[in-house]
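Appendix B, record 7
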Amino acid sequence: MKSRVLQIKDYREVDITPLLKPFVPDEAALETELRRLTNPYVRWETGETASAGDQVVCRLVSDCPRFNKEKVRFVAGSGMFHKELEALVIGMTVGEAREADLSEGRVSLTLTGVMNRVVPELSDEMVEKLGLEGVDTVADYRAYLLAQQKDSAFQDALYEPQKQLMAEVIAGSEFVLCKEDWAVVVNRELDRCRTLCRQEGMVLEEMTPEQFRGRIPVKSYHELVAMLQYDGWDSLCRYLLGCWYAQTDGFQAGEADYEAFIADYAKTWHVSVENAREANPYETFIFNEYAGHTYTVLKKYIREFY
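Structure tokens (predicted):
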């Protein structure tokens, strides 16, 4: 390849802070996950007063057959039986009766039994049994869950700052870009699309808008060619940047990585290894790996702000 980088723009000089969304912890979700850890340790005890989450047994008397039952069992507040009657039973003691006027008619409810749901306090011992490396205490587990939230928020917010950063690095760098290299990039991707379509029993050049829908964001072969030609220059720049970064950070991609990729591709897309290789030649894989390395470098930089 004759194309090369002459001078690279330092991505750290680009101010991306206006594009970053501040991370706000979801405390309710944290508490829900912490409570979930106690579920295997919940026990049931015979009680006298019904609370939300308790199992109750009631006698219902009504002119409506659905609510005229000698014995019915449900969990108060679960919404699985009847919302109004479940709310009615909360706070009742065994033997107490209450009435409710429902759309179906009046119902008299008598509480005949309660099994209280007893939830123990979350303990370090419960956390230890999870077997998470470096997570031994309740405080550790909370920090672990918070880190997961933060990572999820980062992934959701990554697109715009990464897109902007990539555009500014490419625009601010100097390249020697050869037309023949650009043509190779475009034709290589066209060949890949052609192969994928052939494996599905279609001819790329003859595909209809309906056949393109859900596969490639164009409506015709000519639109596809135009899109790949337009994207080809930036793809070539990303590859050259990835090779530049690899010289300093030690990134390498080779045969072993390719074999692992092919195995994973075949498994994920439920195709033969032969079809996976045909759709993803080694040269294409290497090009995409180094172009993708540029994204990885910029992503790592953006991650520093979270």
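Remarks on this record: Residues 19 and 161 are 6 Å apart (CA to CA). DSSP finds eleven helices and seven strands in the chain.
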